[in-house]
Design brief:
By secondary structure, the chain is mainly α. The chain folds into 2 domains: 1-74, no CATH class; 75-109, no CATH class. It contains 6 helices and 2 strands. A two-stranded parallel ribbon has the order 1-2. Helix 1 packs parallel to helix 3. The longest helix has 19 residues, at 15-33. The radius of gyration is 16 Å and the shape is globular.
Length: 109
């Protein structure tokens, strides 16, 4: 299951923004689409970016009882999603042209 959120242009992802995403978008989506995960325990894989590793985010993950999968230290040359996730996301978009960010957003969501 993939939950997405498009950050508004000119905005940045902060700890507060990411925490709100976890609470308002990801948690309800898991509850709706994968309710059995709540019983088995939710595992989160995110990178070690400051907003993801903040105390506010750790607090909400602890509150929900969600575990964070260990992640390799950041390396711009070896990002696991580059090898597995992104090619799968990009394949259906191959050869298509988009005139605006809204068209891209509609296509991928």
């Amino acid at each position: 299951m993939i939950a997405t959120d498009r950050v508004p242009p000119g905005s940045t992802v902060t700890a507060a923004y990411y925490r709100k995403f976890l609470q308002d978008i990801l948690r309800p989506k898991i509850r709706q689409e994968r309710s059995a995960m709540f019983a088995a325990g939710v595992l989160i894989l995110h990178d070690n970016a400051r907003p993801h590793a903040s105390g506010a985010v750790s607090e909400i993950l602890d509150k929900y009882g969600w575990r964070v999968l260990p992640n390799l230290l950041y390396s711009p040359d070896m990002s696991p999603p580059d090898f597995d996730l992104f090619p799968k996301v990009k394949k259906p978009l191959h050869g298509k042209r988009f005139r605006s960010i809204e068209e891209v957003s509609n296509e991928v969501t």
